[in-house]
Write a structure and sequence with these properties.
The protein has 17 helices and no strands. By secondary structure, the protein is mainly α. It has one domain (12-195, 206-402): Growth Hormone, Chain: A, CATH 1.20.1250.20. Helix 1 runs antiparallel to helix 5, helix 9 runs antiparallel to helix 14 and helix 16 (368-380) packs antiparallel against helix 17.
C-alpha cells in the first residue's frame, strides 16, 4: 500500500459530529433496503410474479444504481456535497411514496429503480468525506461506524414492520417509513456545511485533469485488486444478496415449502441484522490494529462457512438462530473493510475519483449476482442458491494476496 499522508489531528471530536449526519442519511437508505425484502413475499402473491421477477428487479435496479454512483460521486467536485447527500434521502422518500401507491408490478418496479438511482450519491460522497475527516489509523473504525450505524436503520425496520404489516398492510407500512427520509435529508442539507465544500479549482482545470486522474486510478494495482475482490465476493455479501434471499428462504421455503410465519421470519431477520451492527464495529477495529488485508481474508472464509451452515441447519430454529447471528457478523462486515482499504491505498488527490470507480464496479456489476441467484432459486431452489453464494467470497480471497505494501 502507498504511504499515507501523515495522520493529522483533525480535532476528532469535531469530526464525529458531521459523521453522525452522514450515518443518518446512510441509515435511511439501509431502512429502505431492509424493508423491500419484507415486502417481496406480499407482492409475489398480490401481483402473481415469480422469484425470477424479483431477481431481475434487484439486478436491474442495483446495476442501474451502481453504475450511476460513478457520475454521482464526481458531482461532489461541482455541487455542494451536503446537498447531494440530503437530496438523495428526499428523493428516496418520494420513491417510497410511489411504491406504496403501486397498482401493478410495473409500477412497483419503476419506483424501485427510481429509488435505487436517486440514492446513488450516498456511498461515494459519504466515503470520500469520511476519508478526508479521519486518518488511516482510525479508518477501519469510522467506516465501521458508518456501516453499523446504517445497519441500525436496517434492524429497526423488521422490529416495527412485522406488526405494521398486520395492522395496515404492506402499502401503509411503506408509507410510515417515508418520514425519516424527509427529516434526515433536510438535516444533511442544513447542518453539514463542511460537506458543502467542493474541490476548488477552475472549471477548465477540472476538465483537463479528470482524464489523467482517471488513468492514475486505473494504473494503481492495489485499487484494481480491491475492486476485483469486492466484485467477486459480492455473491456472499449481506446487503444486496442475503438481505434479499434469506427472508424469502425463511418465509417460503423451509419446512417442506410451507415456510415460517411472518413474525418468526421478522425475528430471525432481526437477529441477522443484530450481527450486522456488532460485526463491522468489532472487525473494523481489529483491522485497524492487525491489518486490513489479513482481516478481510479471514472474514471472507468465515462468510462462506456461515452460508453453508445455514443450508445444513435445515428447519431447526436452534441451529438457524446462531448461524444467522454469525452470518450478520461476518457477511455484512467485509464491504465496509473493502471501503476502508480503498481509502488506504488511494492517493488523497484522487480518492474521490477512486471511490467513484469502486462503487459502480463493486455494486453495479456486482448486481449481476442478484439476477443470477434469482434464476438459480427459481430453477433449482434456495439450497443451490446458497451453495453458489458461499463460493463467492472464497473465489475473491486469494486475489488479496496480490496487494503490495
Amino acid at each position: 500500500m502507498i504511504r499515507e499522508e501523515q495522520d493529522r489531528d483533525y480535532h476528532t471530536q469535531r469530526r464525529y459530529k458531521p459523521l453522525v449526519l452522514v450515518v443518518l442519511t446512510h441509515a435511511f437508505i439501509h431502512m429502505y433496503h431492509a424493508l423491500l425484502p419484507l415486502v417481496y413475499p406480499f407482492i409475489v402473491i398480490e401481483f402473481g410474479i415469480s422469484y425470477v421477477a424479483i431477481g431481475v428487479l434487484e439486478g436491474v435496479s442495483r446495476f442501474s444504481a451502481g453504475i450511476v454512483q460513478g457520475p454521482a460521486g464526481l458531482l461532489g467536485r461541482f455541487v455542494p456535497r451536503n446537498v447531494l447527500l440530503g437530496l438523495g434521502n428526499l428523493l428516496l422518500a418520494l420513491s417510497m411514496g410511489f411504491t406504496s401507491l403501486s397498482a401493478n408490478f410495473a409500477n412497483f418496479a419503476a419506483a424501485s429503480v427510481f429509488g435505487r438511482i436517486v440514492q446513488s450519491p450516498q456511498h461515494p460522497i459519504g466515503s470520500s468525506l469520511i476519508s478526508e475527516w479521519f486518518g488511516r489509523k482510525l479508518r477501519g473504525t469510522v467506516f465501521a461506524i458508518n456501516y453499523s450505524g446504517a445497519n441500525v436503520g436496517s434492524i429497526i425496520v423488521p422490529l416495527i414492520a412485522g406488526g405494521l404489516f398486520l395492522l395496515i398492510g404492506w402499502r401503509g407500512t411503506v408509507g410510515v417509513f417515508i418520514a425519516p427520509g424527509l427529516l434526515f435529508g433536510l438535516l444533511a442539507i442544513i447542518m453539514l456545511p463542511e460537506a458543502g465544500k467542493a474541490v476548488v479549482t477552475t472549471s477548465g482545470s477540472k476538465k483537463h485533469r479528470l482524464g489523467s486522474e482517471l488513468i492514475k486510478v486505473i494504473k494503481d494495482s492495489n485499487s484494481r485488486v480491491i475492486i476485483i475482490s469486492s466484485m467477486l465476493s459480492a455473491g456472499g455479501r449481506g446487503l444486496g444478496i442475503l438481505s434479499i434471499y434469506v427472508p424469502l428462504y425463511l418465509r417460503d421455503t423451509i419446512r417442506d415449502g410451507l415456510g415460517l410465519d411472518l413474525m418468526t421470519t421478522s425475528v430471525l431477520y432481526t437477529i441477522l441484522l443484530i450481527g450486522s451492527i456488532v460485526g463491522p464495529l468489532f472487525l473494523g477495529r481489529i483491522s485497524d490494529r492487525f491489518g486490513r488485508v489479513r482481516t478481510i481474508q479471514t472474514i471472507l472464509f468465515l462468510s462462506s462457512l456461515n452460508i453453508v451452515l445455514l443450508v445444513l441447519s435445515g428447519d431447526n430454529l436452534l441451529l438457524i438462530t446462531p448461524v444467522l447471528l454469525a452470518m450478520g457478523f461476518t457477511n455484512y462486515s467485509y464491504s465496509a473493510l473493502f471501503q476502508a482499504s480503498i481509502a488506504d491505498v488511494a492517493h488523497p488527490s484522487i480518492r474521490d475519483l477512486t471511490f467513484s470507480l469502486f462503487f459502480p464496479l463493486s455494486f453495479g456489476l456486482g448486481a449481476v449476482w442478484s439476477f443470477g441467484l434469482g434464476l438459480v432459486a427459481d430453477q433449482f431452489g434456495f439450497q443451490t442458491l446458497f451453495l453458489i453464494s458461499a463460493m463467492s467470497p472464497l473465489v475473491a480471497l486469494p486475489f488479496l494476496w496480490l496487494i503490495k505494501d
